[in-house]
Input
Amino acid sequence: MKWFKRIVVTIAVIIAFFIIAFWTLACWFEYHEKHYFQDRDRIERITGVALPKFKVTSYDEGDRGFTGDYNDFFFFEFKNPLPDELFDELDEKIKAGNTGWRKEGNKYSFSQTWGNGIPAPKGEDENDDRFFNITITRGDKRGIVKHGTW
Output
């Protein structure tokens, strides 16, 4: 009967180990996805525009699909309003066309989708099936990023 108790305890320890391992992996994945587009270098690489440091002021999780798709957004704030030179650069990019940037009034936005046959921006994986959108406004310190997988 002692051997039976040892087997049960061993199985319980193995099950506990796998539960903890899967929980840790899930937490890491959630953290990674939440902060994926909060990296200024990544944003610059995707949009082609260098932005100054910013602080995320709020993060909202959007819908979640059963296949792992998600749609999140976060609000961010710069220390100072963005300089006019940045918006002049964006105006030039918009005039050049096919850069992903567009303008409506004082609002400038960039949008790109990739994966599932659509080419990914430099440094991103075409197998990720992601979308990214950033909106900034001339004269304002705040902006919004919408991102997710599809």
User: Anything to note?
Assistant: Residues 6 and 12 are 10 Å apart (CA to CA). The chain has a mean pLDDT of 86. Helices lie at 2-35, 40-47, 84-96. The longest strand covers residues 70-78.
